[in-house]
Amino acid sequence: MKRYGVAFGWLLFGCSAGGAALEQTPETERIDRGKEVYRVSRCAMCHSIEGQGNKKNPLDGVGSRLEEDSVRKWIVSPREMNPKVSKRAYDKLSKVEPAPP
């Protein structure tokens, strides 16, 4: 099953190489889109990636632990994943198209 969604590229791949100029490829475009979603949605209030943000709920390596569908569900309908979670649902992100095969 595919693990890399457009909006979640950064969450799944992790951060891009430290400051090095990267050629825009479909992979780096997904990473950039994921970073933008992370920033705009203020994910760092509750989560961290590479030590940036709230260290209580790190997202490092989430792409190696979860399938894309699970990552999407945790974001758009977290109570379906765990009814005890008080996390806000970001249901508008569910309209993001998945990456092409």
Characterization of this structure:
With 101 residues, the chain is mainly α. The protein has one domain (9-95). 37% of the residues lie in helices and 4% in strands. The chain contains five helices and two strands. It has helices at residues 9-13, 26-40, 62-65, 68-76, 78-81; strands at residues 48-49, 52-53. A two-stranded antiparallel sheet has the order 1-2. The longest helix is centred in the first third of the chain and has 15 residues, at 26-40. The radius of gyration is 13 Å and the shape is globular. The termini are close together. Mean pLDDT is 76; it is low at 1-7 and 13-19.
Q: What are the defining features of this structure?
A:
37% helix, 4% strand, single chain, two-stranded antiparallel ribbon, 2 strands, mainly alpha, 101 residues
Question: What's the layout of helices and strands?
Answer:
Layout: H1 9-13, H2 26-40, E1 48-49, E2 52-53, H3 62-65, H4 68-76, H5 78-81
